[in-house]
Design goal:
The structure is a single chain. Helix 9 links the parallel strand 4 and strand 5. The chain has 10 helices and 8 strands. It is α/β, with parallel strands linked by helices and about 290 residues long. The protein has a single domain, classed as Rossmann fold (3-Layer(aba) Sandwich). Strands 1, 2, 3, 4, 5, 6, 7 and 8 form an 8-stranded mixed β-sheet that branches.
Length: about 290
């Protein structure tokens, strides 16, 4: 089945029509708030932890550099730029198999991905696993079970692909350490960082090696070169009862600190199997260097 991927208008600097990868912790719901705080004039926009790219797609920079340490994520974004039809067709075919054979077909996709990570199966898993909780084991294998929901229709996904392809056309994607990406940012640049969070980061791919001290050093050096730096990081959890300490930030690095509420914690929802989530609401800190 063919899916038309042309002819739709993109309303830039607003949030995309919908998210492509469904991934717990992504900033899709908050992307327009974050993008709205950035300068209107940006020489080059950098995202060293691009992840699912929600803020990147909302900013839709004329010139951008987006990096990630997970190669398959970079491969995915490059396919959205160049061959979105390939992603939608694979999703449509595999979705039908999962609807027909359920968990057995889902586990086949998961095993295929774990044997050879690829962007096509990543998309399928993210949209069919439980709540978008992309849980990785320490050896890099996805372990999340199938979800109870009906996956998004491919026709709807195709319209999202058009929008995202338009939004990402000015961005170069790179698979590398965040420090290398941030080292390029100079005068007139804006750097938005959404690093692995301190709370619960052990289940995130590659997060075991992340240290906030490296991030603060890279941010301070970028600011000294004239870049503006924004960081999303832990704020509070358990509806404010637990505040995550950030004691190692260099004095004077950030001029402002804002809180953006994110609603219920999906990781806890996954762990609590549908119990009352009223006491599990979370908020992020947004740190700005200006």
């Amino acid at each position: 089945m063919a899916f038309p991927l042309a002819g739709l208008e993109t309303d830039l600097r607003s949030r995309p029509r919908g998210q492509l990868l469904k991934w717990v912790g992504n900033k899709f719901r908050q992307a327009h708030l974050i993008a709205g705080l950035l300068p209107e004039s940006i020489d080059t926009y950098y995202e060293p932890f691009v992840g699912t790219g929600a803020v990147l797609a909302t900013v839709s920079p004329a010139r951008g550099v987006a990096g990630d340490s997970l190669p398959v994520l970079i491969d995915f974004h490059r396919l959205v730029q160049t061959k979105p039809e390939q992603l939608v067709t694979h999703y449509s075919t595999t979705r039908e198999q999962i609807l027909e054979r359920g968990r057995v077909a889902y586990e086949e996709v998961k095993e295929r991905f774990n044997a050879e990570p690829n962007p096509e199966d990543l998309l399928v898993i993210s949209r069919t696993c439980y709540g978008g909780v992309m849980r990785f084991t320490r050896d890099g294998r996805i372990s999340t079970p199938i979800g109870p929901h009906t996956p998004m229709p491919p026709e709807k996904l195709a319209t999202y692909m058009v929008d995202w392809k338009n939004r990402l056309k000015g961005t170069s994607f790179v698979n590398r350490d965040f420090r290398e990406t941030m080292a390029e940012a100079g005068d007139g640049a804006v750097v938005y960082c959404d690093p692995p969070y301190l709370h619960g980061q052990s289940i995130l791919y590659g997060a075991q090696d992340f240290r906030t001290g490296y991030l603060w050093t890279a941010a301070l050096e970028a600011v000294e070169r004239g870049a503006r730096v924004v960081v999303s990081i832990d704020g509070w959890r358990r509806s404010g009862a637990k505040k995550i300490a950030l004691d190692d930030i260099p004095e004077g690095l950030f001029a402002r600190e804002l809180l953006i509420e994110r609603g219920g914690c999906m990781l806890r929802r996954f762990q609590m199997s549908g119990e009352d989530m009223q006491a599990e609401r979370v908020a992020d800190r947004l740190l700005l260097s200006w």
